[in-house]
Amino acid sequence: MGGAEPTAEGRTGAEGDRRRSAAARLASGRDWEGGPTRGLLLLATLLLATPAFAQTESPQQTLKRVEQELQADKSRQKQLDQQSQSLQKELDDLRARLIGLAAEERAQESDLAQLEDTLAKLEAEERERSAALEGERQQIAGLLAALQRLARIPPEAALARPEGPVDTLRSALLLRDTVPALRARADALAGALTKLAETRETLETQRRRTMAARTALADRQNDLSKLVARREELSRQTEEERVQVAQHATRLAGQATDLRQLMERIEAERRAAAEAAAKREAERLEAERREAERKLAAKKEAERRLAEQRLAEQKAAEQKAAEEKAAERARAEAEFAAAQRAPDAETVVGGRMPAVGKVTVRYGESDRFGSTSRGITIQARPGGTVVAPQAGTIMFAGPFRGYGQILIVEHSNGYHSLIAGFGRIDTAVGRRVATGEPIGLMPADGSPDLYFELRRHGQPINPQRGFGTPEGKGQG
After folding, report:
1. How far is Cα 228 from Cα 236, in angstroms, rounded to an integer?
2. Under DSSP, is residue 33 helix (H, G, I), strand (E, B) or coil?
3. pLDDT band at 431 (very low <50, low <70, confident <90, very high)
4. How far apart (Å, rounded) are the C-alpha atoms in residues 202 and 195?
């Protein structure tokens, strides 16, 4: 007979030792002289020695799986520790309950012993009292018999008895006094006997209760003992599982270390190759960066030249606008001078004067307050009629600050009329008026003045020039 064939567990352990040994040699560098190709070949050999489900895994996947199993074992170990602590706490609680129940049992036994001792004393007292009662009962029975016999003797016979009459009378009196005392004593003994019987019944009831409590206590102790035994068995099983999990975690930790060292060497070669490729890529990017900088510089130079050209064009445009503005200002001054030389009139270009009278302050002259007038002032006739200078819509009608009663009319093509100095306004906001339509009256006394201001797109213009073309050309 040859040697005993190794068991499956022995073969698995030897196979695991060979895998760890190969991984350790790879990690120490003794089998690395053949370069990365040989290292990968040894790694493939190591992986082929793993179970069938892991043969198709890459080294990274194998390491990840091992680490996941190791983490699962740690979690299970933690759960088992917590379960063990919980079981230990339950065992401690059960032991405390047993101690409490044992103390209760001892107290009940002590009470039962006192009850039994009291019962024994009462039984002894009962026997003594029963014996005494029996002696007294016999004496009382003799006395009662004598009394009955005496009661049956006729008076004539009693006088013929050998005793003297005095003795017979004394005996009768003595028996008459003794009978109530004996009866009271007999009644007292009967009551004591009744109380003694009640006490015995009470003690018997208490004894039955005590025995029932002792039986229940014994049953509970038996149940608790079984429960403690069950908890101890669970605790033992938990401890065994915790030891197995710890051993499995230790084996996984060794396997993870071997794989990690092998992966670190492979990763080092991969990093070296990646660094060389990164260096080449950096050189290429540097060349591209320099080319991009050159193109950017050329672009900026072109943009600078274009900006200078645009700036020159803008300056030329600004100069032209300034020249046009100067020409417009000169033309406006000429129109103002012509307006000053023009005679008074009741009409304006494209419309009518709001009132009939003499123009006392013209557009652009100083008014009575020393400010440049932006309209004209007409010295009208007292109570004269004020008409709309052109068709439009009433935008405002009523008093305004220091102007008194004023009226603002919106016309077409951006024109607005402001008329102040009314004595009475005969129109309302929102109403449409036609050219020359009466809109109010001048004050009825004194020498009233009517102020008339004409605006185009918000800018004051010479009212005597009137309403020009839609674009407002020729207005000053």
Report:
1. 12
2. coil
3. very high
4. 10
Q: Is 147 exposed, middle or buried (0-12, 13-18, 19+ CB in 10 A)?
A: middle
Cβ(370)–Cβ(407) under 8 Å? Answer: no
> Which comes out higher in pLDDT, residue 29 or 210?
210
Q: CA 336, 340, 343: angle at the middle one, nearest 5?
A: 130
Domains and CATH numbers, the chain: 57-284 (1.10.287), 349-465 (2.70.70.10)
Burial (CB < 10 A; 0-12, 13-18, 19+), residue 165, is exposed
Burial 203-227 (b: 16+ CB within 10 A, else e): beebeeebeebeeebeeeeeeeeee
For 46, 71, 459, the CA distances from 15, given in Å and listed in that order, are: 10, 24, 104
Give yes or no for residue 296 having a pLDDT over 90: yes
| Helices 165-341 and 59-152, axial angle in degrees (round to 10) | 150
- Residue (of 18, 12, 15, 41) closest to 262 by Cα position: 41
Q: Is the pLDDT of residue 469 over 70?
A: no
Q: What are phi and psi of 373, to 5 degrees?
A: -75, 135
Tell me the C-alpha to C-alpha distance, in Å, between residue 214 and each of 95, 111, 121, 255, 263: 19, 12, 24, 61, 72
pLDDT at 171: 65
Q: Is the dihedral of CA 267, 268, 272, 273 positive or negative?
A: negative
Structure tokens at 91: 């065992």
Does 4 score more than 50 pLDDT?
A: no
Residue 127: closest CA among 182, 188, 192, 181: 192
* Phi–psi pair at 276, nearest 5 degrees: -65, -45
Q: pTM of the full predicted structure?
A: 0.31
Give the integer Cα–Cα distance in Å for 376 and 365: 9
DSSP H or E run through 391: none
Distance CA 381, CA 358 (A): 10
Q: First vs last Cα of the chain: how many Å apart? A: 137
The 10 Å CB-count burial string (b at 16+, else e) for 277-298 is eeeeeeeeeeeeeeeeeeeeee
DSSP string, 318-364: HHHHHHHHHHHHHHHHHHHHHHHHSPP-SEETTEE-SS-EEEEE-TT
One-letter amino acid at 175 equals L
Question: Which residues does 29 contact at the CB level (< 8 Å), separation at least 6?
Answer: 265
The per-residue pLDDT for 30 is 47
